[in-house]
Amino acid sequence: MNNFEIKGRYKGGLIGKTWLPFSKVVESQNETNAVNKVYSLMGSKHGLKRGLIRIDEVKIIE
Prior knowledge:
The chain is of the alpha+beta class. It is built from one helix and three strands.
């Protein structure tokens, strides 16, 4: 299992019109599963649908 750092933006703020940055570190077998895990975490924590989350960067942390 590798650790992946995923950086991106999600639509939120007081009015819901601004893009707020985020960075998450997740443990996963591959990049695709790591991105899906972040979508799941952000959706459950902030009540967001996948269309409101933008992934900008995915990298493996050694």
